[in-house]
Automatic annotation (TrEMBL):
Residues 57-185 form the LTD domain. SUPFAM superfamilies: Lamin A/C globular tail domain. Pfam families: LTD. InterPro entries: Lamin_tail_dom, Lamin_tail_dom_sf. This is LTD domain-containing protein. The lineage of its organism: Bacteria, Bacillati, Actinomycetota, Actinomycetes, Kitasatosporales. It comes from the Bacteria.
Amino acid sequence: MRVAASRPPPAHGTDPAPSVNGCLWEGARTMQGDSLFVSVSVTARRLAATALAAGALVSAVTLPASAADHDRAKVEISRVQYDSPGRDDRSNRSLNGEWVELTNTTRERINLKGWTLSDESGHTYTVGRFHLNGRATVRIHTGEGRDTRTDLFQDRRAYVWNNDRDTATLRNDRGRFVDDHSWGRHGGRH
Ligand SMILES: [Ca+2]
Ligand SMILES: [Ca+2]
């Protein structure tokens, strides 16, 4: 079933400065020695600023791909119950019988804050403050409820995962693809 309006996509914060700044600074200081430290440090600052700008430009092209691959190996959509058990009467109980499970395939805790789960129509749920423990699974319900370590709630009043066909897509906090899961008439995918 569809809901009337979709939430706007989440705004993504500015990424923290890459470590190139610190590397350049240390390199310049070591190479030039203490006597030239003050003047060199100014040059180093300029160099760092230039490198930072260049680095930011490069990272926009190259880093997200590797970051996505990284996260893709870490968290997966492990199960989807897109048809809530019983009659779809749109009660909160029924809405919460519709869910998607995410599993952390690593041993390390992963911060899922800002990660999104979307359907084919663009209805998007953004994870709030939440860490998924290593090897743990979290179930994201469609309806309303109080978030716990094992269950999160989209707080919707309508179904989001179509019974006939749909795709759940997981993206990280940079908006990069992590995993998806399709069902219905999709030519045999999943
Ligand atoms: Ca049903
Ligand atoms: Ca849908």
